[in-house]
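We modelled the chain as a single entity of 97 amino acids. Its sequence is:
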Amino acid sequence: MWIGWIEFDILLGDVQSLKEKRSIIRPLLAELKRRFDVSVAEVGDHDQYRRSQLGAGLVAADRAHLVEVLTAVERFVAARPELELLSSRQRDLHSED
């Protein structure tokens, strides 16, 4: 069994409040869940309205599938016009590690 996750550091565009931030982040998280069947959450920068840290996790039978899905998630987030992807960190572990 393979366990993988990816973390994103994101800068939001013309956002002036936490309410506006939520109006961007919530639909993004919902779309990632629906499209890629991953677990996702906002994992940091909760009190900053122009920054966000998101995480997505996945369990898979083989590493190739895990890497394929997490790479697709990263491409999807990077392509969003309303945000700027500052960095991403991807990690995977085998259950026997």
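As a brief sanity check on the tokenised model: DSSP finds two helices and four strands in the chain. Residues 18-36 form the longest helix (19 residues).
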